[in-house]
Design brief:
With about 600 residues, the chain is mainly alpha-helical. Helix content is about 70%, strand content about 0%. Helix 1 links the parallel strand 1 and strand 2 (about 35). It is elongated and about 110 Å long.
Amino acid sequence: PLQGVIVDDLHFADVATLELLPALVSALAATVRFGFAQRPGEGDAAAATLRGALEEAGLLSTLLLAPLRADDLAALVASLQIEALDAPRLAQALARHTGGNPLFALETVKQGLLTGQLRSGDLPQPGTVGALIERRLRQLPAQALALARVAAIAGPDFSASLAEQALGQRAIGLADAWQTLSDAQVLNDTAFAHDLVAEAVLRSVPVSVGRELHQRIAAWLPAQGGEPARIAQHWLAGGDVAAALPWLHRAAEVARARLRPREAADCLQQALDIETEHASPAQAFDTLTRLLKLRLLVDQDGSLLTLIDRMDMLAMTASQRIAAGLQRAEFRMHRGDDLADGQAAAERAAVLAEQSGAGEALIEARLTAAVLQAMRGDYASAAGAVDPLLDALPAVADTQARCNLLGKAAYVLARAGRTQEGGALFDEAARQAHADPQVQLVALANAAQARLQLNDPEGALARLQRSDALRAAHDGLRGSGHANAWMTAWALQLLGRYAEALALFDGMIEEIGARSPGKLAAVFVDRARLWLELGQPARAHQDRERARAALRRPDHAGLRLLDLRLAAAGLLPPPPADEVPMAHIVMVQARLLASSLVPDGVR
Protein backbone atom coordinates (compact mmCIF):
# COMPACT_ATOMS: atom_id res chain seq x y z
CA PRO A 1 0.00 0.00 0.00
CA LEU A 2 1.02 3.58 -0.57
CA GLN A 3 2.73 4.97 2.56
CA GLY A 4 4.13 8.31 1.50
CA VAL A 5 4.23 10.95 -1.23
CA ILE A 6 7.12 13.38 -1.71
CA VAL A 7 6.46 16.49 -3.80
CA ASP A 8 9.78 18.10 -4.77
CA ASP A 9 10.23 21.59 -6.21
CA LEU A 10 6.88 22.80 -4.95
CA HIS A 11 7.82 26.30 -6.14
CA PHE A 12 7.42 25.06 -9.73
CA ALA A 13 3.87 23.62 -9.20
CA ASP A 14 0.97 25.18 -11.08
CA VAL A 15 -1.92 26.87 -9.29
CA ALA A 16 -4.38 24.01 -9.93
CA THR A 17 -2.07 21.48 -8.28
CA LEU A 18 -1.50 23.74 -5.30
CA GLU A 19 -5.25 24.22 -4.83
CA LEU A 20 -5.84 20.46 -4.96
CA LEU A 21 -3.18 19.46 -2.43
CA PRO A 22 -4.90 20.66 0.83
CA ALA A 23 -7.96 18.51 0.19
CA LEU A 24 -5.82 15.54 -0.89
CA VAL A 25 -3.65 15.73 2.22
CA SER A 26 -6.68 16.02 4.50
CA ALA A 27 -8.37 13.03 2.92
CA LEU A 28 -5.34 10.74 3.11
CA ALA A 29 -3.70 12.03 6.32
CA ALA A 30 -4.64 8.92 8.30
CA THR A 31 -2.85 6.49 6.00
CA VAL A 32 -0.38 8.45 3.82
CA ARG A 33 2.44 10.79 4.87
CA PHE A 34 3.15 13.76 2.61
CA GLY A 35 6.39 15.65 2.23
CA PHE A 36 6.89 18.90 0.35
CA ALA A 37 10.21 20.50 -0.66
CA GLN A 38 10.43 24.15 -1.61
CA ARG A 39 13.33 26.54 -2.05
CA PRO A 40 13.28 29.44 0.41
CA GLY A 41 12.16 32.70 -1.10
CA GLU A 42 10.51 31.05 -4.10
CA GLY A 43 6.94 30.05 -4.91
CA ASP A 44 3.92 32.21 -5.68
CA ALA A 45 0.89 33.20 -3.59
CA ALA A 46 -0.75 29.81 -4.15
CA ALA A 47 2.18 28.05 -2.47
CA ALA A 48 1.89 30.40 0.52
CA THR A 49 -1.88 29.65 0.68
CA LEU A 50 -1.16 25.90 0.70
CA ARG A 51 1.30 26.25 3.52
CA GLY A 52 -1.10 28.37 5.57
CA ALA A 53 -3.99 25.90 5.09
CA LEU A 54 -1.91 22.88 6.13
CA GLU A 55 -0.48 24.69 9.19
CA GLU A 56 -3.99 25.75 10.27
CA ALA A 57 -5.21 22.14 9.99
CA GLY A 58 -2.25 20.92 12.05
CA LEU A 59 -1.00 18.83 9.16
CA LEU A 60 2.34 20.54 8.56
CA SER A 61 5.62 20.48 10.41
CA THR A 62 8.26 22.80 8.93
CA LEU A 63 11.89 21.71 8.71
CA LEU A 64 14.39 24.34 7.58
CA LEU A 65 17.56 22.83 6.18
CA ALA A 66 20.68 24.72 7.25
CA PRO A 67 23.44 25.43 4.74
CA LEU A 68 26.27 22.92 4.56
CA ARG A 69 29.29 23.74 6.70
CA ALA A 70 32.81 23.65 5.32
CA ASP A 71 33.33 20.11 6.66
CA ASP A 72 30.10 19.00 4.98
CA LEU A 73 31.16 20.59 1.71
CA ALA A 74 34.53 18.83 1.96
CA ALA A 75 32.72 15.51 2.33
CA LEU A 76 30.46 16.38 -0.62
CA VAL A 77 33.45 17.24 -2.84
CA ALA A 78 35.34 14.13 -1.69
CA SER A 79 32.34 11.97 -2.57
CA LEU A 80 32.71 13.05 -6.20
CA GLN A 81 36.00 11.06 -6.28
CA ILE A 82 37.73 13.49 -8.64
CA GLU A 83 41.48 13.28 -8.08
CA ALA A 84 42.21 16.83 -9.24
CA LEU A 85 40.10 18.32 -6.42
CA ASP A 86 41.65 19.17 -3.06
CA ALA A 87 38.45 18.77 -1.05
CA PRO A 88 39.47 20.48 2.25
CA ARG A 89 40.98 23.50 0.50
CA LEU A 90 38.18 23.83 -2.05
CA ALA A 91 35.50 23.48 0.65
CA GLN A 92 36.58 26.67 2.42
CA ALA A 93 36.31 28.68 -0.81
CA LEU A 94 33.01 27.05 -1.73
CA ALA A 95 31.54 27.93 1.67
CA ARG A 96 32.25 31.61 1.06
CA HIS A 97 31.22 31.50 -2.57
CA THR A 98 27.97 29.54 -2.29
CA GLY A 99 26.95 29.96 1.35
CA GLY A 100 26.81 26.18 1.76
CA ASN A 101 24.03 25.67 -0.79
CA PRO A 102 24.71 22.14 -2.17
CA LEU A 103 23.17 22.89 -5.58
CA PHE A 104 25.26 26.03 -6.00
CA ALA A 105 28.37 24.18 -4.79
CA LEU A 106 27.96 21.31 -7.25
CA GLU A 107 27.20 23.64 -10.15
CA THR A 108 30.26 25.74 -9.28
CA VAL A 109 32.51 22.66 -9.20
CA LYS A 110 31.08 21.39 -12.51
CA GLN A 111 31.59 24.74 -14.22
CA GLY A 112 35.07 25.15 -12.73
CA LEU A 113 36.15 21.74 -14.02
CA LEU A 114 34.86 22.53 -17.50
CA THR A 115 36.62 25.90 -17.72
CA GLY A 116 39.76 24.92 -15.78
CA GLN A 117 39.24 27.76 -13.30
CA LEU A 118 39.47 25.44 -10.30
CA ARG A 119 43.09 24.64 -11.20
CA SER A 120 43.97 28.35 -11.00
CA GLY A 121 42.18 28.78 -7.69
CA ASP A 122 39.24 30.76 -9.09
CA LEU A 123 35.60 29.91 -8.59
CA PRO A 124 33.28 30.55 -11.55
CA GLN A 125 29.77 31.96 -11.59
CA PRO A 126 27.71 29.17 -13.18
CA GLY A 127 25.04 30.49 -15.53
CA THR A 128 22.47 28.04 -14.22
CA VAL A 129 22.97 29.22 -10.65
CA GLY A 130 22.91 32.85 -11.72
CA ALA A 131 19.62 32.37 -13.51
CA LEU A 132 18.14 30.61 -10.47
CA ILE A 133 19.22 33.41 -8.14
CA GLU A 134 17.93 36.10 -10.49
CA ARG A 135 14.55 34.35 -10.67
CA ARG A 136 14.45 34.24 -6.87
CA LEU A 137 15.27 37.95 -6.70
CA ARG A 138 12.46 38.81 -9.13
CA GLN A 139 10.00 37.14 -6.78
CA LEU A 140 11.02 39.32 -3.82
CA PRO A 141 8.69 42.14 -2.71
CA ALA A 142 9.77 45.52 -4.03
CA GLN A 143 10.87 46.82 -0.63
CA ALA A 144 12.95 43.68 0.07
CA LEU A 145 14.66 43.95 -3.33
CA ALA A 146 15.41 47.65 -2.72
CA LEU A 147 16.96 46.77 0.65
CA ALA A 148 19.07 44.04 -0.95
CA ARG A 149 20.28 46.49 -3.58
CA VAL A 150 21.36 48.97 -0.94
CA ALA A 151 23.25 46.16 0.80
CA ALA A 152 24.98 45.20 -2.45
CA ILE A 153 26.08 48.77 -3.19
CA ALA A 154 27.17 49.48 0.40
CA GLY A 155 29.19 46.29 0.78
CA PRO A 156 30.99 46.14 4.17
CA ASP A 157 29.45 49.49 5.17
CA PHE A 158 25.89 48.16 5.13
CA SER A 159 23.93 48.58 8.37
CA ALA A 160 20.43 49.39 9.56
CA SER A 161 21.41 53.05 9.94
CA LEU A 162 22.72 53.20 6.40
CA ALA A 163 19.57 51.51 5.08
CA GLU A 164 17.47 54.17 6.84
CA GLN A 165 19.53 56.91 5.19
CA ALA A 166 19.54 55.39 1.72
CA LEU A 167 15.87 54.42 1.61
CA GLY A 168 14.48 57.33 3.63
CA GLN A 169 12.63 55.01 5.99
CA ARG A 170 13.01 54.10 9.67
CA ALA A 171 14.59 50.72 10.37
CA ILE A 172 11.43 49.43 12.06
CA GLY A 173 9.59 49.93 8.80
CA LEU A 174 12.15 47.76 7.04
CA ALA A 175 11.79 44.84 9.46
CA ASP A 176 9.50 42.77 7.24
CA ALA A 177 11.71 43.31 4.20
CA TRP A 178 14.77 42.32 6.21
CA GLN A 179 13.04 39.14 7.43
CA THR A 180 12.02 38.31 3.88
CA LEU A 181 15.64 38.54 2.75
CA SER A 182 16.73 36.34 5.63
CA ASP A 183 14.04 33.72 4.88
CA ALA A 184 15.05 33.74 1.22
CA GLN A 185 18.70 33.17 2.19
CA VAL A 186 19.70 36.42 0.58
CA LEU A 187 20.94 38.21 3.71
CA ASN A 188 22.42 36.79 6.87
CA ASP A 189 22.11 39.68 9.34
CA THR A 190 23.84 42.54 7.45
CA ALA A 191 25.91 40.36 5.10
CA PHE A 192 24.93 38.44 2.02
CA ALA A 193 24.51 34.74 2.47
CA HIS A 194 27.14 34.08 -0.19
CA ASP A 195 29.10 35.70 -3.00
CA LEU A 196 26.88 34.46 -5.81
CA VAL A 197 23.73 36.12 -4.51
CA ALA A 198 25.64 39.36 -3.75
CA GLU A 199 26.90 39.46 -7.34
CA ALA A 200 23.43 38.73 -8.71
CA VAL A 201 21.87 41.54 -6.67
CA LEU A 202 24.58 43.93 -7.79
CA ARG A 203 23.90 43.08 -11.43
CA SER A 204 20.23 43.90 -10.90
CA VAL A 205 20.94 47.52 -9.90
CA PRO A 206 20.42 50.00 -12.77
CA VAL A 207 23.58 51.99 -13.47
CA SER A 208 22.08 55.40 -12.72
CA VAL A 209 20.54 54.11 -9.47
CA GLY A 210 23.85 52.59 -8.46
CA ARG A 211 25.70 55.88 -8.97
CA GLU A 212 23.13 57.74 -6.87
CA LEU A 213 23.36 55.18 -4.07
CA HIS A 214 27.16 55.28 -4.07
CA GLN A 215 27.09 59.07 -3.74
CA ARG A 216 24.58 58.98 -0.88
CA ILE A 217 26.63 56.39 0.97
CA ALA A 218 29.89 58.30 0.40
CA ALA A 219 28.33 61.52 1.75
CA TRP A 220 26.91 59.74 4.80
CA LEU A 221 29.93 57.64 5.86
CA PRO A 222 32.35 60.36 7.09
CA ALA A 223 30.10 61.31 10.02
CA GLN A 224 29.97 57.61 10.95
CA GLY A 225 33.75 57.22 11.04
CA GLY A 226 33.84 55.31 7.75
CA GLU A 227 37.11 54.01 6.31
CA PRO A 228 38.66 56.64 3.98
CA ALA A 229 39.52 54.04 1.35
CA ARG A 230 35.92 52.85 1.07
CA ILE A 231 34.57 56.40 1.07
CA ALA A 232 36.90 57.15 -1.84
CA GLN A 233 35.75 54.06 -3.73
CA HIS A 234 32.10 55.01 -3.23
CA TRP A 235 32.77 58.48 -4.68
CA LEU A 236 34.61 56.92 -7.62
CA ALA A 237 31.80 54.43 -8.26
CA GLY A 238 29.40 57.38 -8.04
CA GLY A 239 31.31 59.15 -10.79
CA ASP A 240 32.59 62.06 -8.66
CA VAL A 241 36.38 61.90 -8.94
CA ALA A 242 36.88 65.37 -7.43
CA ALA A 243 35.12 64.27 -4.24
CA ALA A 244 37.12 61.01 -4.19
CA LEU A 245 40.55 62.69 -4.41
CA PRO A 246 40.98 63.95 -0.81
CA TRP A 247 39.72 60.61 0.51
CA LEU A 248 42.30 58.72 -1.55
CA HIS A 249 45.04 60.83 0.03
CA ARG A 250 43.56 60.29 3.48
CA ALA A 251 43.35 56.55 2.82
CA ALA A 252 47.03 56.50 1.82
CA GLU A 253 47.99 58.19 5.08
CA VAL A 254 45.94 55.72 7.10
CA ALA A 255 47.54 52.76 5.31
CA ARG A 256 51.03 54.21 5.75
CA ALA A 257 50.42 54.78 9.47
CA ARG A 258 49.32 51.15 9.74
CA LEU A 259 52.60 50.13 8.09
CA ARG A 260 50.89 48.88 4.94
CA PRO A 261 52.84 50.74 2.25
CA ARG A 262 51.55 48.58 -0.60
CA GLU A 263 47.96 49.64 0.12
CA ALA A 264 49.07 53.25 0.54
CA ALA A 265 50.83 53.12 -2.83
CA ASP A 266 47.70 51.76 -4.51
CA CYS A 267 45.67 54.69 -3.15
CA LEU A 268 48.25 57.22 -4.30
CA GLN A 269 48.37 55.64 -7.76
CA GLN A 270 44.61 56.16 -8.07
CA ALA A 271 44.99 59.74 -6.86
CA LEU A 272 47.82 60.38 -9.34
CA ASP A 273 45.74 59.10 -12.24
CA ILE A 274 42.96 61.53 -11.29
CA GLU A 275 45.32 64.47 -10.71
CA THR A 276 46.99 63.95 -14.07
CA GLU A 277 43.64 64.76 -15.69
CA HIS A 278 41.99 67.10 -13.18
CA ALA A 279 44.62 68.79 -10.97
CA SER A 280 47.68 71.01 -11.21
CA PRO A 281 51.14 69.66 -12.15
CA ALA A 282 52.39 70.67 -8.69
CA GLN A 283 49.75 68.55 -6.98
CA ALA A 284 50.51 65.59 -9.27
CA PHE A 285 54.24 66.00 -8.58
CA ASP A 286 53.75 65.87 -4.80
CA THR A 287 51.62 62.74 -5.12
CA LEU A 288 54.15 61.11 -7.44
CA THR A 289 56.96 61.86 -4.96
CA ARG A 290 55.08 60.15 -2.14
CA LEU A 291 54.14 57.25 -4.40
CA LEU A 292 57.72 56.56 -5.45
CA LYS A 293 58.97 56.57 -1.86
CA LEU A 294 56.36 53.98 -0.96
CA ARG A 295 56.99 51.87 -4.05
CA LEU A 296 60.68 51.64 -3.16
CA LEU A 297 59.63 49.98 0.10
CA VAL A 298 57.64 47.23 -1.57
CA ASP A 299 59.10 46.73 -5.05
CA GLN A 300 62.08 47.91 -7.04
CA ASP A 301 61.42 46.58 -10.53
CA GLY A 302 62.45 48.49 -13.60
CA SER A 303 58.92 49.80 -14.20
CA LEU A 304 59.59 52.48 -11.59
CA LEU A 305 61.86 54.22 -14.09
CA THR A 306 58.77 55.26 -16.03
CA LEU A 307 57.44 57.04 -12.94
CA ILE A 308 60.84 58.63 -12.29
CA ASP A 309 61.00 59.93 -15.87
CA ARG A 310 57.50 61.31 -15.38
CA MET A 311 58.70 63.03 -12.21
CA ASP A 312 61.50 64.70 -14.19
CA MET A 313 58.98 66.03 -16.71
CA LEU A 314 56.69 67.42 -14.00
CA ALA A 315 59.52 69.11 -12.06
CA MET A 316 59.35 72.89 -12.51
CA THR A 317 60.89 74.43 -9.40
CA ALA A 318 64.35 73.93 -7.90
CA SER A 319 62.96 71.94 -4.97
CA GLN A 320 61.06 69.68 -7.37
CA ARG A 321 64.15 69.08 -9.50
CA ILE A 322 66.12 68.26 -6.34
CA ALA A 323 63.45 65.77 -5.28
CA ALA A 324 63.39 64.19 -8.75
CA GLY A 325 67.17 63.82 -8.81
CA LEU A 326 67.24 62.24 -5.36
CA GLN A 327 64.48 59.83 -6.33
CA ARG A 328 66.45 58.65 -9.35
CA ALA A 329 69.57 58.24 -7.23
CA GLU A 330 67.65 56.24 -4.59
CA PHE A 331 66.24 53.96 -7.26
CA ARG A 332 69.67 53.25 -8.73
CA MET A 333 71.06 52.66 -5.24
CA HIS A 334 68.38 50.12 -4.36
CA ARG A 335 68.52 48.36 -7.70
CA GLY A 336 72.30 48.27 -7.72
CA ASP A 337 72.46 48.99 -11.46
CA ASP A 338 73.61 52.00 -13.50
CA LEU A 339 75.26 53.46 -10.41
CA ALA A 340 76.93 56.20 -12.46
CA ASP A 341 73.51 57.50 -13.50
CA GLY A 342 72.41 57.51 -9.86
CA GLN A 343 75.55 59.30 -8.66
CA ALA A 344 75.24 61.94 -11.38
CA ALA A 345 71.58 62.53 -10.41
CA ALA A 346 72.53 62.96 -6.74
CA GLU A 347 75.36 65.35 -7.60
CA ARG A 348 73.04 67.48 -9.76
CA ALA A 349 70.61 67.60 -6.85
CA ALA A 350 73.43 68.69 -4.53
CA VAL A 351 74.36 71.59 -6.84
CA LEU A 352 70.73 72.75 -6.98
CA ALA A 353 70.36 72.40 -3.19
CA GLU A 354 73.47 74.49 -2.58
CA GLN A 355 72.33 77.17 -5.01
CA SER A 356 68.88 77.38 -3.41
CA GLY A 357 70.10 77.19 0.20
CA ALA A 358 68.25 73.93 0.96
CA GLY A 359 70.41 72.72 3.84
CA GLU A 360 68.93 69.30 4.64
CA ALA A 361 68.42 68.51 0.96
CA LEU A 362 72.10 69.33 0.40
CA ILE A 363 73.14 66.89 3.14
CA GLU A 364 70.91 64.17 1.72
CA ALA A 365 72.13 64.71 -1.83
CA ARG A 366 75.81 64.64 -0.84
CA LEU A 367 75.38 61.53 1.34
CA THR A 368 73.44 59.76 -1.41
CA ALA A 369 76.15 60.60 -3.94
CA ALA A 370 78.76 59.29 -1.49
CA VAL A 371 76.89 55.98 -1.08
CA LEU A 372 76.75 55.50 -4.84
CA GLN A 373 80.41 56.46 -5.14
CA ALA A 374 81.30 53.82 -2.54
CA MET A 375 79.18 51.26 -4.35
CA ARG A 376 81.27 52.00 -7.44
CA GLY A 377 84.46 51.24 -5.49
CA ASP A 378 85.81 54.75 -4.81
CA TYR A 379 85.86 54.33 -1.03
CA ALA A 380 88.35 57.02 -0.09
CA SER A 381 86.58 59.80 -2.00
CA ALA A 382 83.21 58.69 -0.64
CA ALA A 383 84.46 58.73 2.96
CA GLY A 384 86.06 62.11 2.36
CA ALA A 385 82.67 63.47 1.24
CA VAL A 386 80.95 62.08 4.34
CA ASP A 387 83.29 63.37 7.05
CA PRO A 388 82.35 67.08 6.75
CA LEU A 389 78.66 66.16 7.07
CA LEU A 390 78.78 64.09 10.26
CA ASP A 391 78.44 67.01 12.68
CA ALA A 392 75.31 68.24 10.92
CA LEU A 393 73.38 64.96 11.17
CA PRO A 394 72.17 65.25 14.80
CA ALA A 395 70.52 68.59 13.97
CA VAL A 396 68.17 67.05 11.36
CA ALA A 397 64.75 67.45 12.97
CA ASP A 398 62.74 64.64 11.39
CA THR A 399 63.52 61.29 13.03
CA GLN A 400 63.01 59.19 9.92
CA ALA A 401 65.15 61.50 7.79
CA ARG A 402 67.86 61.66 10.47
CA CYS A 403 68.01 57.87 10.85
CA ASN A 404 68.20 57.35 7.10
CA LEU A 405 71.03 59.87 6.80
CA LEU A 406 72.89 58.22 9.67
CA GLY A 407 72.52 54.93 7.83
CA LYS A 408 73.98 56.36 4.64
CA ALA A 409 76.96 57.84 6.45
CA ALA A 410 77.52 54.58 8.33
CA TYR A 411 77.37 52.57 5.12
CA VAL A 412 80.07 54.65 3.44
CA LEU A 413 82.37 54.52 6.45
CA ALA A 414 81.95 50.76 6.77
CA ARG A 415 82.74 50.28 3.09
CA ALA A 416 85.82 52.47 3.45
CA GLY A 417 87.25 50.19 6.15
CA ARG A 418 86.13 52.32 9.11
CA THR A 419 83.84 49.57 10.28
CA GLN A 420 83.80 50.44 13.98
CA GLU A 421 82.64 53.99 13.21
CA GLY A 422 80.09 52.77 10.71
CA GLY A 423 78.75 50.13 13.09
CA ALA A 424 78.33 52.69 15.85
CA LEU A 425 76.33 54.95 13.52
CA PHE A 426 74.16 52.05 12.39
CA ASP A 427 73.38 51.12 15.99
CA GLU A 428 72.60 54.76 16.79
CA ALA A 429 70.18 54.91 13.85
CA ALA A 430 68.42 51.77 15.11
CA ARG A 431 68.21 53.22 18.63
CA GLN A 432 66.72 56.52 17.45
CA ALA A 433 64.22 54.76 15.18
CA HIS A 434 62.60 52.80 18.02
CA ALA A 435 59.19 54.47 17.46
CA ASP A 436 59.11 53.83 13.70
CA PRO A 437 59.22 50.10 12.79
CA GLN A 438 59.69 50.90 9.12
CA VAL A 439 62.90 52.83 9.78
CA GLN A 440 64.07 50.62 12.62
CA LEU A 441 63.98 47.36 10.69
CA VAL A 442 66.19 48.94 8.02
CA ALA A 443 68.60 50.37 10.59
CA LEU A 444 68.84 47.00 12.33
CA ALA A 445 69.60 45.28 9.02
CA ASN A 446 72.35 47.79 8.30
CA ALA A 447 73.73 47.36 11.83
CA ALA A 448 73.81 43.61 11.21
CA GLN A 449 75.92 44.18 8.12
CA ALA A 450 78.44 46.13 10.20
CA ARG A 451 78.63 43.29 12.74
CA LEU A 452 79.40 40.88 9.90
CA GLN A 453 82.22 43.09 8.71
CA LEU A 454 83.55 42.99 12.29
CA ASN A 455 83.39 39.17 12.19
CA ASP A 456 80.63 39.08 14.80
CA PRO A 457 78.04 36.69 13.29
CA GLU A 458 76.20 36.24 16.60
CA GLY A 459 75.70 40.00 16.93
CA ALA A 460 74.58 40.16 13.30
CA LEU A 461 72.03 37.37 13.76
CA ALA A 462 70.60 39.05 16.86
CA ARG A 463 70.01 42.27 14.93
CA LEU A 464 68.64 40.42 11.91
CA GLN A 465 66.17 38.52 14.07
CA ARG A 466 64.85 41.79 15.49
CA SER A 467 64.62 43.26 11.98
CA ASP A 468 62.83 40.17 10.64
CA ALA A 469 60.39 40.23 13.55
CA LEU A 470 59.38 43.78 12.62
CA ARG A 471 59.09 42.79 8.97
CA ALA A 472 56.91 39.77 9.81
CA ALA A 473 54.59 41.88 11.97
CA HIS A 474 53.78 44.22 9.10
CA ASP A 475 52.78 42.60 5.79
CA GLY A 476 53.52 45.64 3.69
CA LEU A 477 57.18 45.75 4.76
CA ARG A 478 58.11 42.26 3.57
CA GLY A 479 59.00 43.23 0.04
CA SER A 480 62.78 43.52 0.48
CA GLY A 481 63.42 40.70 2.95
CA HIS A 482 65.95 39.07 0.62
CA ALA A 483 68.67 41.43 1.93
CA ASN A 484 68.14 40.09 5.45
CA ALA A 485 68.17 36.53 4.12
CA TRP A 486 71.46 37.27 2.37
CA MET A 487 73.12 38.56 5.51
CA THR A 488 71.67 35.69 7.54
CA ALA A 489 73.26 33.24 5.10
CA TRP A 490 76.57 35.06 5.49
CA ALA A 491 76.34 34.87 9.31
CA LEU A 492 75.41 31.18 9.22
CA GLN A 493 78.38 30.48 6.97
CA LEU A 494 80.71 32.16 9.45
CA LEU A 495 79.21 29.99 12.18
CA GLY A 496 79.74 26.81 10.15
CA ARG A 497 76.02 26.18 9.62
CA TYR A 498 76.55 25.50 5.93
CA ALA A 499 73.34 23.63 5.04
CA GLU A 500 71.18 26.45 6.38
CA ALA A 501 73.30 29.03 4.57
CA LEU A 502 73.03 27.18 1.25
CA ALA A 503 69.26 26.89 1.57
CA LEU A 504 68.99 30.65 2.05
CA PHE A 505 71.27 31.39 -0.90
CA ASP A 506 69.23 29.09 -3.14
CA GLY A 507 65.95 30.71 -2.05
CA MET A 508 66.96 34.34 -2.59
CA ILE A 509 68.54 34.24 -6.05
CA GLU A 510 65.33 34.53 -8.09
CA GLU A 511 63.99 37.41 -5.98
CA ILE A 512 67.24 39.37 -6.06
CA GLY A 513 67.49 38.86 -9.81
CA ALA A 514 64.04 40.40 -10.22
CA ARG A 515 64.24 43.18 -7.63
CA SER A 516 67.93 44.11 -7.36
CA PRO A 517 69.76 42.72 -10.41
CA GLY A 518 72.85 44.79 -9.69
CA LYS A 519 73.44 42.68 -6.57
CA LEU A 520 73.06 39.29 -8.22
CA ALA A 521 76.75 38.90 -9.05
CA ALA A 522 77.68 39.40 -5.40
CA VAL A 523 75.22 36.69 -4.34
CA PHE A 524 76.82 34.20 -6.72
CA VAL A 525 80.28 35.22 -5.49
CA ASP A 526 79.27 34.65 -1.88
CA ARG A 527 77.74 31.26 -2.66
CA ALA A 528 80.88 30.32 -4.61
CA ARG A 529 83.00 31.16 -1.54
CA LEU A 530 80.75 28.87 0.47
CA TRP A 531 81.22 26.05 -2.04
CA LEU A 532 84.98 26.48 -1.73
CA GLU A 533 84.77 26.19 2.04
CA LEU A 534 82.80 22.95 1.55
CA GLY A 535 85.48 21.56 -0.76
CA GLN A 536 83.34 21.86 -3.91
CA PRO A 537 85.54 23.89 -6.31
CA ALA A 538 83.63 22.74 -9.42
CA ARG A 539 80.37 24.17 -8.07
CA ALA A 540 82.23 27.31 -7.01
CA HIS A 541 83.44 27.66 -10.60
CA GLN A 542 79.85 27.37 -11.89
CA ASP A 543 78.76 30.19 -9.60
CA ARG A 544 81.76 32.21 -10.71
CA GLU A 545 80.51 31.97 -14.30
CA ARG A 546 77.02 33.00 -13.20
CA ALA A 547 78.52 35.98 -11.35
CA ARG A 548 80.44 37.08 -14.44
CA ALA A 549 77.26 36.86 -16.54
CA ALA A 550 75.38 39.02 -14.02
CA LEU A 551 78.24 41.46 -13.43
CA ARG A 552 77.43 45.17 -13.79
CA ARG A 553 80.97 46.48 -13.30
CA PRO A 554 84.34 44.93 -14.24
CA ASP A 555 86.21 45.67 -11.00
CA HIS A 556 84.13 43.62 -8.57
CA ALA A 557 86.52 43.03 -5.67
CA GLY A 558 84.86 39.85 -4.45
CA LEU A 559 85.05 38.28 -7.91
CA ARG A 560 88.76 39.12 -8.19
CA LEU A 561 89.53 37.36 -4.94
CA LEU A 562 87.32 34.42 -5.94
CA ASP A 563 89.33 34.12 -9.16
CA LEU A 564 92.54 33.95 -7.13
CA ARG A 565 91.10 31.17 -4.97
CA LEU A 566 89.88 29.24 -8.00
CA ALA A 567 93.30 29.65 -9.60
CA ALA A 568 94.84 28.23 -6.43
CA ALA A 569 92.46 25.25 -6.77
CA GLY A 570 93.63 24.72 -10.34
CA LEU A 571 90.28 25.64 -11.91
CA LEU A 572 91.55 28.88 -13.46
CA PRO A 573 94.95 29.82 -14.88
CA PRO A 574 96.96 31.99 -12.47
CA PRO A 575 96.96 35.68 -13.42
CA PRO A 576 100.21 37.30 -14.52
CA ALA A 577 102.12 38.52 -11.49
CA ASP A 578 102.31 42.08 -12.80
CA GLU A 579 98.50 42.23 -13.06
CA VAL A 580 97.91 41.29 -9.42
CA PRO A 581 100.27 43.33 -7.24
CA MET A 582 100.41 42.28 -3.60
CA ALA A 583 99.01 45.61 -2.40
CA HIS A 584 95.90 45.05 -4.47
CA ILE A 585 95.46 41.49 -3.13
CA VAL A 586 95.70 42.79 0.44
CA MET A 587 93.16 45.53 -0.35
CA VAL A 588 90.75 43.05 -1.90
CA GLN A 589 91.04 40.68 1.05
CA ALA A 590 90.49 43.49 3.55
CA ARG A 591 87.42 44.74 1.74
CA LEU A 592 85.87 41.48 0.59
CA LEU A 593 83.11 41.46 3.16
CA ALA A 594 82.43 45.16 2.71
CA SER A 595 82.11 44.76 -1.05
CA SER A 596 79.74 41.80 -1.20
CA LEU A 597 76.62 43.24 0.33
CA VAL A 598 74.71 46.28 -0.76
CA PRO A 599 71.77 46.37 1.65
CA ASP A 600 68.32 47.40 0.49
CA GLY A 601 67.87 49.58 3.51
CA VAL A 602 70.44 52.32 2.95
CA ARG A 603 68.37 55.46 2.43
